[in-house]
Amino acid sequence: MTHQQIDATLFSLMIWAGAQQLNKHVEQVNALNVFPVPDGDTGTNMNLSFSSGAKEVKRKKSEHVGQLAEALSKGLLMGARGNSGVILSQLFRGFAKSVENKVTLTARDLAQAFHKGVETAYKAVIKPVEGTILTVAREAAEKGLVRMAQTNDVVAVMETVLKEARLSLSRTPKLLPVLAQTGVVDAGGQGLVFIYEGFLSALKGTVKWQETESEAIIVEPTESLGALAHQSAQAQIDASEIEHGYCTEFMIMLEKDASFDETAFRREMAQFGDSLLVVSDDDLVKVHIHAERPGDALNFAMQYGGLTRIKIENMREQHASIVEKKVSASPTELPVEKAAGAEDAEESKPYGLVAVAAGDGIAEIFRSLGVDVIIEGGQTMNPSTEDIARAVERLNVEHVIILPNNKNIILTAEQVEHIVDTPVTVLPTKTVPQGLAALLAFQPEADLEENRRRMTESLTRVRSGEVTYAVRDSNVQDLEIKEGDFLGICEGKIETVGRSLLATSRDLLQKMLSEPADVVTILYGKDVTDAQVKELSDFLKRNYPDVEYEVHYGGQPLYFFLFSVE
């Protein structure tokens, strides 16, 4: 089958076929994680991110490919999770920019769009690493440019792009030694290949709309702006304290001649309630608000256009259900918790602090150090750009400082500044200990540059360690690892492997304390016993009498201990 052009229907089918193919192979991509730790979530992050974009394409219902590509780009940005998801969003952001004025795509348009996507993605990453999804996308796009000069057939161009993507993927172990050592190819690159496979199947006519719509997205990103915002906080309050009782969500389909100012709209809409979030593009506005009289908010919004996807929920009833059932969070339901009193503050303050954390104990420590909003997340539960943006929007402050506390969330957090009005600073905290160190260096009275300097410098004074377990057999850094082994990791490097949790933890502490240190902080996870905590504390007391140590309950999943050495 050949095609001279890609129209809107075919482009939509390509996107959904790409989503379907990626979704079918999520676990295969997850399994390519280099470290055998229980956070191999590249496939999950890419799937959630691309699914978000695909859903926006489906909702757009346009006959203009450029408009559909823009919808894909915006959906990807809002749903982007983890480094892989953000890079994917940037690839298709550039793609969308390249075709924004195209009703249909030719072979040349398609090839140039892939190339523009690569340029955009490379610019978004401060230090691009070859042997990753970036390399796969770049080398595939380069071959696409060569092929477009030889044919007008979009199928032929896509075949060439996919063929080179597969070849490039097979070469990634030669560019990244850690891939060769573990015997895998790059996970992000593999995810991109699956997406491209879906694109080609749509162009060749081997996938049908009915099949795609019914099977494409199984693991779905949360669609509701409000669903994530209520569960954990509501379990801690009394129903009588809920002032605005109806979680109200809707979308405005802007009239063509409507004069819409997002800032002015947000200011006017605020009179109807709180927890307001407004996200808009050229023809659509997405609104979430807690209102006591939701009809008033809807009536006000109708002056700008028709309303769609209206959802109103009684939060007092939700509260009663949550307290009764004691609902806990899952990786696709990341509750955003707010510090007591933050939502009720009427006067703006200079700073707001937002932190990502997994574990009720760690969250409580962050709150005690002044964090305004806690986003539950971390390993295997990377929040999306929209999750973090929503947290920022809840604060009435002049500037927000975001602490990702995970290397895989930093790039996601950095996208937030593009979709919120409040100025934000993302501190590149890669671990919970770094986040805690940064908070201790924060001074509410200092100006932004002084706080940025103090908090950034504090990251260099702390060494971070963690103890987890291996989810599969592996060989990393010349260490023979068996499934179920305990792993002691310091600053991202596996330092020790053992069959005993306490022995591995002691070995890791000894390695971390081989350099001079004053203070050791231990955060123990939800699966650690009091006896194990006592034994490790006694070990420090006996062997390092001159080092102060603190022990706190962290409650984190997957990681038995988190160590901070300063």
SS class: alpha+beta
Strand content: 15-25%
Number of helices: 22
- Main sheet record: 6 strands, mixed
What is the gist of this entry?
This protein has about 575 residues and is an alpha+beta fold. Helices cover about 45% and strands about 20% of the residues. It has helices spanning about 10-25, 25-30, 40-60, 65-80, 80-100, 105-125, 135-150, 155-175, 175-180, 185-205, 210-215, 230-235, 260-270, 295-300, 315-325, 360-370, 385-395, 410-415, 430-440, 450-460, 500-510, 530-545, and strands spanning about 245-255, 275-280, 285-290, 305-315, 335-340, 350-355, 375, 395-405, 425, 465-470, 475, 480, 485-490, 495-500, 520-525, 550-555, 560-565.
Write up what this structure looks like.
- This protein is α+β, with helices and mostly antiparallel strands and 566 residues long.
- The chain has helices at residues 8-24, 26-30, 42-60, 65-79, 82-98, 107-124, 133-148, 154-175, 177-182, 187-204, 209-215, 231-234, 262-269, 294-301, 315-325, 360-368, 385-393, 410-414, 432-441, 448-459, 501-512, 530-543, and strands at 246-254, 273-280, 284-291, 305-314, 336-338, 349-357, 373-376, 397-403, 424-426, 463-469, 474-476, 479-481, 486-490, 493-498, 519-524, 548-553, 561-565.
- The protein has a 6-stranded mixed sheet. Strands 5-7-6-8-9 form a 5-stranded mixed sheet, with helices on both faces.
- Helix 1 crosses helix 11.
- The longest helix has 22 residues, at 154-175.
